[in-house]
Amino acid sequence: PQKKQVLVKYSGGNSTNYFPGQMSFQESNFSLEILNTSRQDGQLYEYSVSKGPEEEVQQLQLKVYEPVSAPSIRVLSKELTNGSCTVTLNCTSELGDHVSYSWAGGSCSGNSSFLKLSWHVWNTSTTCFCTATNPVSTGAVPFDPIECGHEPGGSHSPLCL
């Protein structure tokens, strides 16, 4: 014999919720909400409706994702050559499941956490955005090339970041 855990039972127009405080069942549209969802709630669920001698059974796979945290951008390398600033950036989000990254804005685009970006030091009007996304949330952070400054010590030759 197979054992199943019953969350809600509906019979004769009345419902019994076996997990009040954890589950909310709406008789009006037969929706079931898991309250305070946790990763442990991600599993296979079975939904069955009995009408006389017939039973209809459906299975649902619930996936629970941790939302992404605000991403941060780290400069991996920087180089100044012939008045052009070139940086390699890495965008990461500390939290989140199944995170994908994209870059957009100005002259930058990409679908990876890494981006190699070049611009002329006198043209700092381009801002790039890194976006971290998963199925339940999105976070974005800008990288502004205006952060290119001058070398410390009074030198006027530009230095990337």
Automatic annotation (TrEMBL):
It is found in: Membrane. It comes from the Eukaryota. One of its GO terms (cellular component) is membrane. The keyword Zinc does not apply. Keywords: Glycoprotein, Membrane, Signal. This is SLAF1 protein. InterPro entries: CD2/SLAM_rcpt, Ig-like_fold. It comes from Scytalopus superciliaris.
